[in-house]
Specification:
The complex is a heterodimer of chains A (about 375) and B (about 325).
Chain A (H helix, E strand, L loop, with lengths): L2 H34 L12 E6 L5 H16 L7 E5 L4 H14 L4 E5 L7 H11 L2 E5 L8 H4 L3 E6 L3 H14 L4 E7 L5 H14 L5 E8 L4 H15 L3 E6 L2 H14 L5 E2 L5 H9 L4 E4 L2 H17 L13 E3 L3 E4 H12 L22
Parallel strand pairs in A: 1-2, 1-3, 3-4, 4-5, 5-11, 6-7, 6-8, 8-9
Antiparallel strand pairs in A: 10-12
Helix pairs in contact in A: 2-11, 3-4, 6-7, 8-9, 10-12
Chain B lengths: L9 H4 L2 H23 L6 H26 L7 H18 L11 H22 L4 H20 L4 E2 L3 H8 L1 E2 L2 E2 H19 L1 H11 L1 H6 L4 H27 L1 E2 L7 H11 L11 H20 L4 H19 L10
Antiparallel strand pairs in B: 1-4, 2-3
Helix pairs in contact in B: 2-13, 3-8, 3-9, 3-11, 3-12, 3-13, 4-5, 4-6, 4-11, 5-6, 5-11, 7-8, 7-11, 8-9, 9-11, 12-13, 13-14
Classes of the chains: A alpha/beta (about 375), B mainly alpha (about 325).
Chain lengths: ~375, ~325
């Protein structure tokens, strides 16, 4: 028998076996959720399935976003498992595919909150949701030319956080701690990320009021602790004693900076961004001068809440002003003076939010430059 | 040509083989001189100490993977392995009292054993299920990262034990303690490579697996032991990462794959097996660390740093590997 024929027969056998296996798996998949999953409870969300699409569960930030979405779900009298997590693992393609699959599974009756992973992906996501008849809110990533009001009621809102103003405030605290003079180095996020750009701009803006402050260098450490430690070491070689203060675009990089300084027995004032629990502890101990909290719990809850409330018909997005469709979330500066009170309020316990107060914590309409 | 006994003619030293053998070291020295010429701060004891801190965990991963590459296989599980082992070490240390002055010291041998065990499982899956090492180890790496995410729930585990952290903070002759520890483990790697039967078997398998098998080498056993050894060194890297950063999380091992594999190849270990050793790994790691540190120190704009790193890697590989001996490159 020729190998071609042998292979052909083999192939046919395998594909028949695969078909049987696939059918069995499909049957199990459709029956399993009915037996064990939430199933019935979804009726209580007014017939709408709830989902959050985000990057991963490997950071305190995204966990906090998800906890907000779950808090909103529980406020409806549901269990937190009734909100589905769609994890994109940093892939825009997976983000879009997951959302399409979720829409298809629920016949379009879905209220979704999502971070589209990168800016260009927000448009296909919004269009896919509109086509299926679902409702979506986005956070962080979208292009400047995409607006919810251009897509229609199905694209309910976009929430972002201004990095510039809070970053400038943190920088001013740093400059004051330095006595208003000396060299500063900046450790930035991934260069093309919008928050990385805005947080650097905040530093540069603050420097204008402090003529004796010199920005020595600004390099990316990609939000990463290890890379930040190595970058800080290299800065020390290049600038040595000229460095009097360090400005970091997030907390994780500040951890690396502090360790690089510890290795040399140097103490310098350091400010950071995100308000993660570890960073707040460091502020309380005086290791870190300040950090900025963006309340991801509220952001995660309100993004899902807006999409769901619009889906229920409790408000009509197109009748709302633009400042209710594109707005900044809140930012809170945490310094040693208020760190303890802050920790008690936001970290040791989670504040209960009234999710019907949709724009209560908004910091104004998003401004494009 | 007649020469007195004991003298070697210069021409014999300048053979192609010798040049290839020492090329990575020459590349390293050239880079150090180049960066020092542009910014004299580069050539200072304090900067060299910083380089060793940056390079120590990466070197341990590189030594581990060198054994695998000598066998002609590849192990890509390092990122997940280092993350998971670092996280487990931190939890274990905290559970045992939080200080290596007490029972906490048991966490160190425990994690080294666990690393070796995880490596052995990795190797066993590769050998037993006949999955290419590339795929099986990559998959095991994902399992490791997943386990780290599951254990931490995305949070950070901090270690404040000053005695353990003295690996970073205590200095002897200007270098942190971790530099000496790393060098100790590097010597251990060298002893295994050059003075044990297992080490010779790695080369035998990498040089020609069929031949090694026909000569009575238990190739499967050698492979599993090789992966176990790699796992042991990944555990050392995990310990050093915790010492260096004072914390562990699910991304503690990130970036180690690129740095270690690049370093091993740049250092002159051939990906097709049978060539190179742990000293090549050392030189390779130092080359990559010097490039990364040097680019900041001489002030190359950040947006072209990645591009330059890539180019320098290609140049270093061209200079330091003997490509004439291979019939084709896959």
């Amino acid at each position: 028998m020729s190998t071609f024929i042998k292979n052909y027969i083999e192939q046919e056998k395998i594909s028949r076996r695969n078909l049987l296996l696939a059918a069995a798996a499909g049957l199990t998949a459709t029956t399993m959720p009915r037996a064990f999953g939430p199933g019935m409870a979804q009726a209580d969300a007014g017939g709408w399935a709830l989902a959050w699409s985000y990057r991963d569960r490997a950071s305190a930030y995204w966990n906090s976003i998800v906890s907000g979405g779950e808090a909103y779900t529980e406020s409806l009298g549901l269990k937190k498992e009734d909100m589905t997590s769609l994890i994109n693992e940093g892939s825009s393609e997976k983000s879009l595919a997951d959302i399409k699959a979720f829409l298809a599974k629920n016949g379009g009756k879905a209220a979704i909150a999502c971070d589209a992973n990168d800016s260009p992906n927000a448009r296909p996501v919004a269009e896919a949701v509109k086509e299926a008849g679902g409702y979506v809110s986005t956070i962080w990533n979208k292009t400047d030319d995409l607006h919810p009001w251009d897509i229609g009621d199905n694209y309910v809102a976009h929430v972002s956080w201004s990095g510039e103003k809070p970053s400038a405030e943190a920088a001013k605290i740093l400059f004051d701690a330095m006595g208003g003079e000396g060299g500063v180095v900046h450790l930035g996020g991934i260069p093309a990320n919008i928050p990385a750009i805005e947080r650097l701009n905040g530093l540069l803006a603050a420097q204008k009021d402090y003529p004796k402050i010199e920005i020595l260098d600004t390099q990316p450490a990609d939000w990463d602790t290890t890379k930040a430690a190595e970058l800080m070491s290299s800065y020390l070689t290049k600038y040595g004693d000229k460095i009097k203060g360090v400005h970091c675009a997030n907390d994780n990089m500040a951890y690396g900076v502090l360790q690089a300084l510890k290795a040399e027995g140097i103490t310098l004032p350091v400010v950071a961004f995100d308000g993660n629990p570890e960073a707040v502890e460091m502020v309380m101990k005086g290791e870190l001068l300040a950090t900025v909290f963006t309340n991801p719990h509220w952001g995660g809850g309100i993004a899902l809440g807006l999409a769901h409330q619009a889906a229920l018909g409790n408000f009509k997005p197109s009748e709302e002003p633009n400042e209710h469709r594109e707005f900044y979330g809140p930012s809170i500066l945490v310094t040693k003076a208020d760190a303890e009170a802050f920790k008690a309020k936001y970290l040791d316990s989670t504040p209960k939010y009234d999710w019907t107060d949709k724009w209560g914590l908004s910091a104004g309409q998003i401004v494009y430059k | 040509m007649r020469l007195r006994k004991g003298l070697v003619p210069v021409q014999n030293l300048m053979t192609r083989e010798n040049l290839l053998k020492w090329a990575p070291l020459l590349v390293l020295i050239t880079l150090v001189l180049f960066f020092s010429f542009i910014n004299p701060n580069f050539m200072s004891l304090r900067n060299f100490a910083r380089l060793t801190i940056a390079a120590s965990p990466a070197l341990m991963v590189a030594v581990g993977v060198t054994f695998i590459i000598i066998m002609g296989s590849i192990d890509l599980s390092m990122e997940g392995a280092v993350s998971a082992l670092a996280v487990i070490f931190c939890y274990f240390l905290v559970w045992l009292g939080g200080s290596i002055a007490g029972f906490g010291v048991l966490a160190i041998p425990a994690i080294l054993l666990l690393g070796a065990l995880a490596g052995a499982i990795n190797g066993y899956i590769h050998v037993r299920l006949r999955i290419p090492s590339f795929m099986s180890s990559l998959a095991m790496g994902f399992v490791g990262t997943g386990a780290a995410v599951l254990m931490t729930g995305g949070n950070i585990v901090k270690i404040d034990d000053e005695i353990f952290r003295s690996l970073l903070t205590y200095r002897m002759l200007g270098f942190p303690l971790m530099a000496y520890v790393t060098f100790g483990f590097l010597l251990l790697g060298w002893v295994i490579q050059s003075h044990t039967r297992l080490g010779r078997n790695f080369y035998a398998v990498g040089g020609g697996e069929d031949l090694a098998h026909a000569s009575g080498v238990n190739v499967k056993r050698v492979r599993v032991l090789g992966f176990a050894l790699a796992g042991f060194f990944f555990a050392v890297a995990g310990l050093l990462q915790v010492a260096k950063l004072g914390q562990a999380e699910s991304v503690t091992g990130s970036n180690l794959m690129f740095i270690s594999i690049t370093s091993v190849v740049v250092g002159g270990v051939a990906l097709w097996g049978g060539v190179g050793g742990v000293w090549n790994a050392l030189v390779g790691v130092l080359i990559v660390a010097v490039i990364n540190n040097g680019m900041i120190v001489i002030g190359i704009p950040d947006f072209i740093q990645d591009g330059i790193l890539g180019l320098l890697v290609i140049v270093a590989v061209v200079l330091s590997t003997d490509r004439r001996s291979v019939a084709f490159v896959k």
